[in-house]
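>> received
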Amino acid sequence: MSNLSGVLSRDFELMLEPGVYLMPLPRPESGRGAVLYAPIANTILPLTDAQAELLSENAGDPSVIGLFLDALLGKERSGLSREPGAMDAYRPTSVALMMTTTCQLRCTYCYAEAGSTPSQHLAKEASFAAIDFISQNAVSLGKPSIVVHFHGAGEPTLRWDHIWECLDYARSAASRNGLSLRTVITTNFCLPPDRAILLAERIDRLIVSCDGPPDVMNENRPMLHDDSGAVLEAALQAVSRAGLADKLRVRATMTRKTQGRLPEFVRYFSALGMKHLYLVSVSGTGRGARHESVDVEVFLASWRSAVRVAHEQGLTLDHPVLDLDQLRPEGFACGINGSNFALMPDGSVSVCYEAVVPGSQQAKAFQIGGYSPENRTFQTSLPLINHIRSEYHVSRRQVCDTCFCRLTCAGRCAAREMSPTGAPRDMAMTDGCDITRSLTAEIIQALAYEET
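>> returned
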């Protein structure tokens, strides 16, 4: 019997061929069973004992395995990217405007080290040029829409007037070009209630960083001249009372100290009227390098309890790379493949939203160019983009080759998996891998036997 109540072993699955795995996931009623998991073929197939035994015994014989998998899955199951292809043009249709490096909080794990670096603010002219750039790209590519994301190497709402100028300009640009516009902001949301409501009314999606009740906020995310927990709680309550809570995605960062309190946090956010909660463990970048990583067993036990509470409360609960419908066959966990366009406060352009500490080797590793104010254009380097695609492709991480999460995880966040010097890691399995693998296996098990 396979025990999924703890941490999944690192040799749990048997890869039969790239993208197809034999997994000893037991049926709930018998404690025995196995599943054929082939994400590239959109298949989760419970196996009989005889089928599982046949696959296991012949795993080293590609001809036998191939015939058997042809019968079970059909012959169309290719799609794993072994090597990244080269891009021939950089034409993003979304932009992350990194508004500033300043912040009114001093989060103990901030990957951007916001507030500790020299103050820089994104120029209005550069942000307008970026909106024009993505609009032109959308038109030339025949895309129907553009996305403007207010983000930051600090807190974007500290550039309050600039946000509204950009919104007006983006709406005008979209209208001129026959495009639809989607707007997003990632924010600490430590705002007066009236401003919080205005932001929720005018922006399509708000990603709000809040780690839990006020005691947690004041310890993890202290405010320079106020009580961060009380300020944020009042903002969330105001948005909920205004009927706008569904626009918010609360992003809570779990530390080793708070990892056991996840069910409590779900109840707290539910009581505030929140609808969507996204839990992540602390990053090892920036100030996060001073934090211990979470204890995997404690985190998993707390997560499982939190899922039950979320179901009872009617709140959606998510964790990175657990959506089995979102495959990453190209081999990248995010837009570092050349689809991201992050415009930094100093005017440099990056394909990473997290490697943002000004002047750091890590930030430089993902920079691909910058804004040229003389001719109001962006000078970007295809050789740099293709170098990043090559260096951070999942195939560069040998441990990922046989992992059943390869297509959904794609090696995890590149910024978090590289050393502070900016050199790619020869990545062994990490605690993050253990969490992702354990939770993904539970989802596969539930889907395999949901109708039996």
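>> The CA atoms of residues 208 and 393 lie 30 Å apart.
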